[in-house]
Design a protein that fits this description.
By secondary structure, the protein is α/β, with parallel strands linked by helices. 48% of the residues lie in helices and 15% in strands. The protein contains 10 helices and 7 strands. Helix 1 packs across helix 10 and helix 2 crosses helix 3.
């Protein structure tokens, strides 16, 4: 399943956006129309097993290499030649895998709120609790647990009821196997920064000032190791494309315009 925003006027190129763990194509909803208005074709996807994309019932089918191959198959099917590739969070690990498998399919790479290896920090504890909840109660139990946690977070009170309902529906529509398989991949991914740097692709590491997944310091270090551009989105946490879309858009446009020459 994709959202496909056609370029207004002559296309300057195609951007493919890949969401993170439990995410979907809608995570990029505030970026699509403004980028299309600037002459870019933008394709945002649900990965296999996410929201409106079906997926196999085999947890092993959701490793980053398999998911990266899906991205490459999409790029080939689009028929636009090499693309600008963006991955958010776990999606950053996936687009990295795609670039390492087939660098000629990628013009440049944006790693948004992603890290050099598997997830570390406070969120890993929640990930550890996910598997037993999912195995015992399925996706409805996970949704109930997420709601219970969110109810203690003041930021949750700022989210509209319509958006909360969408987030619940999105999670329920996904695949339990995908959640388990992606969760294992998210925690177990090795550090592949040196391999990626060796490709010599133009890259941007972008994250929120207060990212609560991979620490901002870790992402800044990754940018230095990659020789990548580095941009910090002020007043954003882990989802700058939703939390601060205008600032995120400006940073992305600047990078892609420099990369495209």
């Amino acid at each position: 399943a994709i959202l496909d925003a056609a370029a207004v006027g002559r296309s300057r190129g195609t951007i493919v956006m890949v969401p993170g763990f439990t995410g979907s194509k809608e995570d990029f909803r505030f970026l699509l129309a403004p980028l299309a208005a600037q002459g870019w074709r933008v394709v945002a996807i649900d990965q296999r097993g996410q929201y409106e994309s079906p997926g196999p019932q085999d947890e092993a089918a959701y490793g980053v290499d398999a998911l990266g191959m899906d991205v490459l198959a999409l790029v080939e099917a689009l028929g636009d030649g090499p693309v600008h590739l963006l991955g958010h969070s776990f999606g950053g690990l996936v687009v990295r895998a795609a670039a390492l498998q087939e660098p000629q399919a990628v013009l440049d790479l944006v790693l948004m709120s992603s890290g050099p290896a598997g997830l570390t920090g406070p969120r890993t504890a929640a990930m550890g609790m996910l598997r037993p909840v999912l195995e015992q109660g399925g996706l409805p139990a996970v949704v109930a647990a997420v709601d219970a946690i969110a109810a203690t977070d003041p930021r949750h009170l700022l989210v509209s009821e319509d958006l909360r309902e969408f987030l619940r529906a999105r999670m329920l529509a996904g695949s339990a196997a995908a959640m388990l398989g992606m969760g294992d991949a998210l925690l177990g991914e090795p550090d592949r920064v040196e391999e990626l740097a060796a490709l010599g692709l133009p890259m941007l590491v972008l994250h929120g000032e207060y990212d609560d997944a991979w620490l901002p310091q870790l992402q800044a270090q990754m940018a230095r190791r990659l020789g990548a551009d580095h941009h910090v989105v002020a007043a954003a946490l882990h989802s700058p494309a939703v939390e601060q879309p205008e600032a995120t858009l400006a940073a992305l446009l600047g990078f892609w315009e420099r990369s495209a020459g």
